[in-house]
């Protein structure tokens, strides 16, 4: 029998009826001949309620106590899920992060997994039981409860799949899988049968927030094959793995859009070595994540530097740049209105020229002005007016025939 | 500095405001120069909600999973209490039952404590912190979460006080302490300054349900001095200990009333050795707790047996007696309407005659008919018409001058 790790997020276990539905799905998986390890999140809303209580008591709550509090959410779900399985005749047992020996560093609220012992999971599986493990939580070597931060339950599932040598890890979520573009925007967007880790990272880190990058990176590093699929239907999802069969043929896998960026433009900086370094060091110190970066030399030997940041970081970025300009004694900073970043992603473009040209041409023909361009090995991104973002996604999707042919 | 263990029940921590109020009280205790270890219950309503969810999924939930679920309630409170203390500048750290090394047997939902290691409580105290321990829960030697059943948080507090050699254990509750009688019934009932463990056991196991017997028994066995007091005011409560100073002088300490009993009368049983044994073995097998028992020989060599049981057990008692009567081939059973058991309690009555006479005389003068009598070393109980229970309590209270003189 092959082992499957199945992860169900907060919306999939939000109430007792949904917990029952997930239990039936687990039972079906078992009846197909699989050993099943289940990872669950807190019921949706529970974590937010706990955080709200904590902040009401103390606006800047101690991370250790916050972890003690938050771990409650998943512990509730695992016990309820075990009972829901018992109710339909499936032997099941729950395990906290500590009991599953998910050992982490002591960085509370953003702990990193250092080792997974598994506790007695293998013995329980051998005894014919489904094991339900609390996601999002671990334990330090001295027995302190830790949590992993956003997307932590995905990480638990993928790390457990790795530690237990499971044949497959299924991430059940509220979307059907990974699409060539956002189906709400691009009418003929198609679900992809397979994507590579790198493509998933590029697609997931933008508009189609299926998973946090961290879990995908862990899967890539440890070679864990996983599937993203819906908990609300039985459609096959998207398999994510290292290399996919059609890799040679497909240039662009999908189009991603991020409408939550602003453009920060710094002009008239002194054009001397280290200027950019000083700017970005200041931004890093201010905990600002910088995305696309463009530098060019303006008239009169001064440098112009432009980059994009998440709109949430705009204020901190402005302050950080302001202070560095003061130190330089020259320069002005301006922050744009919200812009959109549109990216085409595909492992295949490594070996194909002409992708950039095709994209730029298609946008130009539709009258969409490109404000910034940045590229990586498997991605080309452009910053454009946010009002044209959906148009740009549709145009790019058509330009690479993503809706027409079988892209997987 | 002397160490105090303070226990706060579910109503004392029901919402964030009450948690803040408890935090201030803990701070005051610290400012009086004490090291403080705090034990808290789940917020009132939480445990009931969790049990309701469990039963909705599976009417007869697995005890192990139920424990996993219920432990959540106290874990939530400890973290919130720690944060409430941080908010007023008190260093504090929370510990689950497992982290406090409260080791139990594996009898889920009614586990018994076998050992308290304490974890790092002493080190945290030495580092100047208040330690908040989750009540009601422990851990087996193989890391399974267990709970103690009703009154479990009191047990945690008393057991911790014993293990940590605390000078005092304070049980904060929604009553002021132990009274000579129920103040709602007996207008001049007085709060007792001190009672012995045995008196507490007799008083608490009846009408004035301040604490479960189990915790008092543990305290008695391990010599843990504790105080029962209100979490809603600063009045001194009642100290419970082995021997109290006024023991020689006071005959009766208090009057307790239990209005939830019925009388089971079996007549015309064969009068032969083993009859009563068979009856009570059957009742024990049916999990019926029998309270007062009277047997006498009726006319014609047949035995009559009468006893009282909690009204909740009446049906099971009737069935159990019915089956034993069938085996005997003779006997009839009748179950009374609800009756009241009124008890006078006091360690002093061991060495004083005349207590029974005084009680019976007082009841007779008030026209209250006694249906059954049972006695122990420190208690005389009578079963009477439930309609006269309050009258009986007042008469007995007066007969032993409990309201008039300083009884402590």
Any idea of the CATH topology of the largest domain in chain A?
Answer: Carbamate kinase
Spatially, the strands of the biggest sheet of chain A line up as 3-6-2-1-9-11-12-10
Low-confidence runs of chain A: none
Task: Give helix and strand order of chain A, one letter per element, not per position.
Answer: EHEHHEEEHEEEHEEHHEEEHEEHEHEEH
Distance between the termini of chain A: 28 Å
Query: How many structural domains can be distinguished in the coordinates of chain A?
Result: 2
Supply the key terms.
homodimer; 408 residues; alpha/beta; Carbamate kinase; VC0802-like; eight-stranded mixed beta sheet; globular
Explain what you see.
The structure is a homodimer of 408-residue chains. In chain A, helix 8 packs across helix 9. An eight-stranded mixed β-sheet of chain A has the order 3-6-2-1-9-11-12-10, sandwiched between helices. A six-stranded antiparallel β-sheet of chain A has the order 14-15-13-16-18-17. Chain A has a two-stranded antiparallel sheet with strand order 4-5. The model of chain A has no long low-confidence stretch (mean pLDDT 90). Helices cover 34% and strands 27% of the residues of chain A. Chain A contains eleven helices and 18 strands. In chain A, strand 4 and strand 5 form a beta hairpin. The radius of gyration of chain A is 23 Å and the shape is globular. Chain A is an alpha/beta fold. The A-B interface holds A 16, 19-20, 50, 53-54, 56-58, 61-62, 64-66, 68-69, 71-72, 75-76, 78-80, 82-84, 86-87, 93-94, 96, 98-99, 119, 143-145 and B 16, 19-20, 50, 53-54, 56-58, 61-62, 64-66, 68-69, 71-72, 75-76, 78-80, 82-84, 86-87, 93-94, 96, 98-99, 119, 143-145.
């Amino acid at each position: 029998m092959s082992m499957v790790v199945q992860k169900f997020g907060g919306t999939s276990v939000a109430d007792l009826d949904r917990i029952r539905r997930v239990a039936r799905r687990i039972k079906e998986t078992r009846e197909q001949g699989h050993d099943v390890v289940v990872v669950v999140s807190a019921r949706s809303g529970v974590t937010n309620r706990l955080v709200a209580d904590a902040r009401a008591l103390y606006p800047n709550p101690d991370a250790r106590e916050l972890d003690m509090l938050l771990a409650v959410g998943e512990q509730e779900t695992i016990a309820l899920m075990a009972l829901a399985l018992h109710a339909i005749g499936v032997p099941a047992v729950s395990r906290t992060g500590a009991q599953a020996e998910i050992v982490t560093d002591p960085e509370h609220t953003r702990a990193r997994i250092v080792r997974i012992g598994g506790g007695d999971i293998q013995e329980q599986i051998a005894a014919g039981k489904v094991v339900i493990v609390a996601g999002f939580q671990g334990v330090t070597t001295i027995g302190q409860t830790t949590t992993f931060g956003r997307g932590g339950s995905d990480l638990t599932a993928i790390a457990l799949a790795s530690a237990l040598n499971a044949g497959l890890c299924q991430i059940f979520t509220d979307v059907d899988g990974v699409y060539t573009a956002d189906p709400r925007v691009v009418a003929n967007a198609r679900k992809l049968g397979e994507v590579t880790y790198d493509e998933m990272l590029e697609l997931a880190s933008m508009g189609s927030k299926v998973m946090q990058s961290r879990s995908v990176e862990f899967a890539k590093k440890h070679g864990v094959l996983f599937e993203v699929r819906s908990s609300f239907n039985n459609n096959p999802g998207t398999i994510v793995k290292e290399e996919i069969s059609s890799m040679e043929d497909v240039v662009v896998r999908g189009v991603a859009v991020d409408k939550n960026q602003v453009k920060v433009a710094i002009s008239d900086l002194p054009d001397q070595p280290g200027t950019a370094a000083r700017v970005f060091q200041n931004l890093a110190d201010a905990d600002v994540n910088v995305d696309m970066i463009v530098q060019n030399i303006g008239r009169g030997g001064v440098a112009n530097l432009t980059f994009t940041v998440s709109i949430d970081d705009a204020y901190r970025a402005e302050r950080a740049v302001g202070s560095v300009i003061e130190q330089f004694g020259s320069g002005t900073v301006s922050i744009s209105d919200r812009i959109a970043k549109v990216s085409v992603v595909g492992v295949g473009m490594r070996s194909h020229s002409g992708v950039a040209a095709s994209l730029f041409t298609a946008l130009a023909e539709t009258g969409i002005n490109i404000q910034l361009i940045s590229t990586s090995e498997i991605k080309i991104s452009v910053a454009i007016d946010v009002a044209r973002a959906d148009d740009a996604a549709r145009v790019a999707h058509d330009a690479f025939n993503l809706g027409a042919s079988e892209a997987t």
